[in-house]
């Protein structure tokens, strides 16, 4: 359904003045006695300026899933992996639609958009008849690489004349995109979650030696500087160092003047030279001097690549050199972008030990950028937040990390990170948080960001559960349990820690803790049944239930009166040869006593006595008997149950020396199928007087 | 046959044949998985199950609930502190998961409350204004303030606005969530005008009324012209301006044949033109020397008309337009005032 909004416009006009004037000719009474009214001029605004202004009132909402997902608890993603999967699946559907449109353009004859949106329409098929220079220029403009190559080849076949400017534009396109198509602009999910850098690792050669590039270059050599610059940029961008070096030498021999972009990539080339630091630094200096001598004006790329090269060198005096470089470029009229600061910070952290100056540099940079809307000017700007938070994580600097997060969340700054980098950003933030923050701060930022902005790692959850245990955070513990369960990445230690903390918290003598028992026990039942289901299906369970976990689960089940699950759990433990903890069994018996369920108590005693007799010492058995005798003394059991229990323990004591196979067979008779339902405490049915229907009908 | 006597089970005698069921069974026999040696001994003859019973598929629904889906967004929203305009930025249908207040909607049955907000179709049907609470409106107004210019100081009252800018132009803009930005309804232009703002004399006004017909509302004294016959808004606006101008000047022109209008063509009673005014004139101007001559004179000139004469005229008009007892009484009183009051008698004497 289309939503329609109708805006009514009403305005007053003074066009009637000419009636008045006309009237004044005839009548002396109706002469207009007007004071002049000055109406201010209309302020200029673009067609979308008001929408943009309204958008500023809306900030990012962390209480629900991002706008691209369904805002529904059953359809929204709850962890990073799900979010990635959902949005990529959605974009796959769009891609399928685009594919159908491109394969069968004859089906899409109607133009429903007005003004027409060209990107929604199928592009006309490329064949020998319609290939011309105009089409080639359009393809180059739209950066459709494979289409442009196809058009060019068709034109070559027909031996059409192509202007040299067009050929140069094609060469530049091929060099920039390495002769392959980029992810289209409209496929935002793939761009967000895909590879962050098209260029990849600069030390590896990604250059695709397309024959068209060579032929174009050789035909354009006569033009001089431009084709050389384009090819040098392309070769160095995709790591073809040897070929690039050859070309640079050739240009120097022929005394061809290179432009500033080519020099930028020559500076970038120095990163992958294996030589001493001093030599490399000298080389960078020489290139910069060369640029100066050639009378070229440095741009932001020059600054970024030189800072990148120097920050990787790891000299002891790097801080001074980096600052000097920035200052000199500022004099030359190049203002540093945020990526430059990020690279300086990365250079100061180093590989082994962070520079002492980082402790000054990091807070001061974040302070100066506070509350600013950042704009990406260079590809390295997209890595700023990631690097800054990495530095914070190394330094374990909480105030800077919080400042960084606030800067990231301010206005549209979060668009500067893609999916992969933002995960790394938040991971670093939570690392600092778990190391340095006090409990209220930890909870504050956790509640803000989880689960919709980020899914923390199991290690963070371990810290969180520990903190909950220490600070007796009973109220929100079930929420954290749910968050951890839906985070999708488990860890045995964390799971064990969670169960341990759950047992500790539910055991507290607090009315809140007693209220929480039911909720936690239900979550525990879910967890247990899920694991059982996995084992039944013979699916490989990466983290199976261990003995310790089962003991903790028994505690939780007992506190939440999950009688049936206790039975299942004990049977499961019997299968796995786990012997239940003594405390857990006594907890169950206590719970049976508290909730008046004698049948369950007798069942548990009998089951434990029979099932775990073979592998248990004699002392344990005596303990069980002691418990049984204690229970029998109280008024808890009725006579039948007492007799049953007595006979059970007498039997087992008499047959304790006999073989275990006996007990197992009898066990299978008794417990294989619990036909009698003892999950509900048995209560005598009250005598209800049946209503007399006749009387009611008469009424 | 009434509806009530319609048989409840019209196909009672027939048994439905389910081909699918047979196919299922064949599939069961064919697949090796379904054959379980534990349950069927080799000596035992396998039974043909006409209606296969599902034994093995005992999956509890709880086991599938590993991913806890039930934590609600409303738990995270504090109604007092929440930034509501970010949670609900645009118009959309009701979502129980995002609205942190208990809402109920539905038919009220005796001793029962209306249904709550979860899975409530009634709430989803109705349009809501959750996207424009007062706080949001305030914030949005603040945001677009920079595009506004100050309102002229002189126009401090509604009357002044009307005086200086008597013409009102109304157009509509439509915004669709559709590929096209056009809407045919956007071309319509309405102009409104109070007739007191344009100079019209009695004749012109009369003619104007005849030209505009029902486009004039005499309760509010407003003329409304709606133009929609041209394809563009600009053209419609120009056309509306043209219509107004043409009507105005046309109403001021006096054609030759208009002098031929007789009393019978009049659409309303005008006392000054009628026999009653002439009779009054003849009575007022009566003198003994006119005895035996015609009593009908021309009407009194405007400067000789006294207030009591005008009162009489109004009373006559009232009686002629609709005769009521009060009207007659008024007429009598006015006539007495003119003819028999002390003043009138004294003057005569």
UniProtKB/TrEMBL annotation, chain A:
Source organism phylogeny: Eukaryota, Metazoa, Ecdysozoa, Arthropoda, Hexapoda
Location within or outside the cell: Mitochondrion
The entry's keywords: Mitochondrion, Repeat, Ribonucleoprotein, Ribosomal protein, RNA-binding, rRNA-binding, Transit peptide, Translation regulation
InterPro entries per record: PPR_rpt, PTCD3, Rib_mS39_PPR, TPR-like_helical_dom_sf
Gene Ontology biological process terms from the UniProt entry: mitochondrial translation; regulation of translation
Gene that this polypeptide is encoded by: LOC117640955
Residue span of region Disordered: 647-699
Protein name as annotated: Small ribosomal subunit protein mS39
Molecular function GO terms recorded: ribosomal small subunit binding; rRNA binding
GO cellular component: mitochondrion; ribonucleoprotein complex; ribosome
Keyword Zinc-finger: no
One matching Pfam family: Rib_mS39_PPR
TrEMBL record, chain B:
Molecular function per GO: structural constituent of ribosome
Top-level taxon in the UniProt lineage: Eukaryota
Protein known as: 28S ribosomal protein S35, mitochondrial
Pfam family, one: MRP-S28
CC per GO annotation: mitochondrial small ribosomal subunit
Domain (Small ribosomal subunit protein mS35 mitochondrial conserved): residue spans on this chain: 183-251
Biological process annotations from GO: mitochondrial translation
Keyword Nucleotidyltransferase: no
UniProt keywords, alphabetically: Ribonucleoprotein, Ribosomal protein
Keyword presence, Ribosomal protein: yes
């Amino acid at each position: 359904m289309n939503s329609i909004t109708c805006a009514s416009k009403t305005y007053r006009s003074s066009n009637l003045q000419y009636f008045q004037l006309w009237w004044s000719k005839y009548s002396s009474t109706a002469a207009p006695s007007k004071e002049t009214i000055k109406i201010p001029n209309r302020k200029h605004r673009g067609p979308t300026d008001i929408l943009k202004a309204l958008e500023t009132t809306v900030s990012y909402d962390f209480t629900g899933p991002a706008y691209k997902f369904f805002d529904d608890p059953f359809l929204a993603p709850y962890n990073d992996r799900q979010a990635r999967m959902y949005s990529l699946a959605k974009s796959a559907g769009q891609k399928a639609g685009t594919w159908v449109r491109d394969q069968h353009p004859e089906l899409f004859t109607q133009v429903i958009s007005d003004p027409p949106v060209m990107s929604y329409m199928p592009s006309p098929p490329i064949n020998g008849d319609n290939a011309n220079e105009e089409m080639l220029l359009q393809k180059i403009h739209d950066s459709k690489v494979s289409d442009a190559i196809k058009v060019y080849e068709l034109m070559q076949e027909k031996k059409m004349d192509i202007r040299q400017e067009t050929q140069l534009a094609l060469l530049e396109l091929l060099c920039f995109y390495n002769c392959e198509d980029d992810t289209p602009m409209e496929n935002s999910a793939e761009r967000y979650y895909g590879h962050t850098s098209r260029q990849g690792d600069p030390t590896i050669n990604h250059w695709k030696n397309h024959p068209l590039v060579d032929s174009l270059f050789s035909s354009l050599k006569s033009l001089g500087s431009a084709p050389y610059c384009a090819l040098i940029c392309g070769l160095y961008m995709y790591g073809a160092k040897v070929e690039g070096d050859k070309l640079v030498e050739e240009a120097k021999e022929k005394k061809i003047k290179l432009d500033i972009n080519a020099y930028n990539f020559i500076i970038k080339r120095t990163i992958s030279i294996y030589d001493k630091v001093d030599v490399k630094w000298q080389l960078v200096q020489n290139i910069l001097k060369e640029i100066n001598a050639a009378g070229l004006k440095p741009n932001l790329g020059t600054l970024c690549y030189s800072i990148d090269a120097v920050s990787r060198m790891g000299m002891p005096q790097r801080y001074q050199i980096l600052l000097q470089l920035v200052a000199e470029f500022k004099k030359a009229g190049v203002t540093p972008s945020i990526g430059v600061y990020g690279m300086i910070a990365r250079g100061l952290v180093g590989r082994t030990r962070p520079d002492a100056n980082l402790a000054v540099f990091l807070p001061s940079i974040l302070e100066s950028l506070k509350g600013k809307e950042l704009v990406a000017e260079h590809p390295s700007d997209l890595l700023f937040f990631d690097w800054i938070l990495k530095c914070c994580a190394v330094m374990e600097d909480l105030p800077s990390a919080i400042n960084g997060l606030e800067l990231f969340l301010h206005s549209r700054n979060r668009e500067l990170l893609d999916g992969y980098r933002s995960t790394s950003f938040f991971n670093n933030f939570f690392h600092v948080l778990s190391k340095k923050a006090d409990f209220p701060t930890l909870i504050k930022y956790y509640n803000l960001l989880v689960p919709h902005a980020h899914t923390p790692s199991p290690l963070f959850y371990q810290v969180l559960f520990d903190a909950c245990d220490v600070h007796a955070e009973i109220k929100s513990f079930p929420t954290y349990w749910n968050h951890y369960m839906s985070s999708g990445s488990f860890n045995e230690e964390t799971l064990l820690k969670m169960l341990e903390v759950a047992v500790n918290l539910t055991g507290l003598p607090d009315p809140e803790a007693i209220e929480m028992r039911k909720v936690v026990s239900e979550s525990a039942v879910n967890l247990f049944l899920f694991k059982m289901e996995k084992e039944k299906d013979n699916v490989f369970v990466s983290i199976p239930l261990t003995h310790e976990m089962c003991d903790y689960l028994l505690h939780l089940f007992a506190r939440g009166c999950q009688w049936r699950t206790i039975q299942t759990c004990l049977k499961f433990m019997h299968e796995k040869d786990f012997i239940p903890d003594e405390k857990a069994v006594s907890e169950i018996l206590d719970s049976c006593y508290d909730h008046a369920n004698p049948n369950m108590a007798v069942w548990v005693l009998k089951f434990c006595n029979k099932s775990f007799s073979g592998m248990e010492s004699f002392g344990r058995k005596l303990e069980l008997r002691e418990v049984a005798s204690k229970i029998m003394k109280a008024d808890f059991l009725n006579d039948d149950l007492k007799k049953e229990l007595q006979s059970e323990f007498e039997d087992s004591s008499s047959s304790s020396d006999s073989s275990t196979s006996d007990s197992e067979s009898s066990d299978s008779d008794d417990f294989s199928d619990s036909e009698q339902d003892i999950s509900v405490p048995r209560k005598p049915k009250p005598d209800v007087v049946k209503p007399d229907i006749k009387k009611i009908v008469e009424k | 046959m009434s509806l009530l006597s319609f048989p409840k089970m019209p196909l009672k005698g027939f048994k439905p044949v389910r081909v699918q069921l047979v196919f299922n069974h064949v599939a069961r026999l064919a697949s090796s998985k379904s054959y379980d040696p534990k349950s069927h001994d080799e000596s035992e003859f396998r039974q043909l199950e006409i209606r296969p019973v599902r034994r093995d598929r005992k999956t509890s629904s709880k086991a599938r609930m590993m991913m806890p889906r039930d934590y609600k967004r409303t738990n995270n929203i504090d109604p007092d502190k929440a930034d509501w305009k970010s949670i609900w930025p645009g118009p959309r249908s009701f979502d129980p998961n995002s609205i942190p207040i208990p809402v109920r909607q539905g038919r009220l049955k005796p001793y029962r409350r209306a249904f709550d907000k979860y899975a409530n179709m009634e709430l989803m049907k109705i349009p809501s204004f959750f996207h424009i609470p007062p706080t949001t409106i305030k914030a949005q107004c603040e945001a677009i303030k920079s595009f506004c210019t100050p309102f002229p100081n002189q126009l401090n009252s509604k009357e002044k606005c009307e005086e200086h800018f008597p013409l009102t132009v109304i157009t509509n803009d439509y915004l669709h969530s559709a590929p096209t930005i056009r809407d045919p309804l956007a071309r319509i232009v309405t102009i409104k005008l109070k007739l007191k703002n344009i100079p019209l004399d009695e004749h012109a006004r009369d003619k104007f009324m005849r030209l505009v017909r029902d486009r004039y509302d005499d309760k509010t004294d407003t003329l409304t012209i709606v133009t929609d016959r041209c394809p563009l808004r600009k053209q419609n606006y120009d056309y509306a301006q043209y219509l107004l101008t043409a009507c105005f000047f046309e109403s001021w022109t006096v054609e030759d044949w208009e002098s031929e209008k007789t009393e019978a063509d009049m659409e309303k009673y005008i006392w000054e033109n009628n026999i009653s005014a002439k009779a009054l004139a003849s009575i007022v101007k009566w003198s003994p020397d006119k005895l035996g001559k015609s009593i009908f004179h021309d009407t009194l000139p405007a400067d000789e008309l006294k207030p009591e004469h005008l009162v009489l005229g109004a009373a006559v008009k009232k009686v002629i337009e609709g005769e009521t007892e009060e009207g007659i009484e008024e007429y009598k009183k006015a006539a007495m005032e003119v003819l028999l009051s002390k003043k009138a008698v004294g003057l005569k004497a």
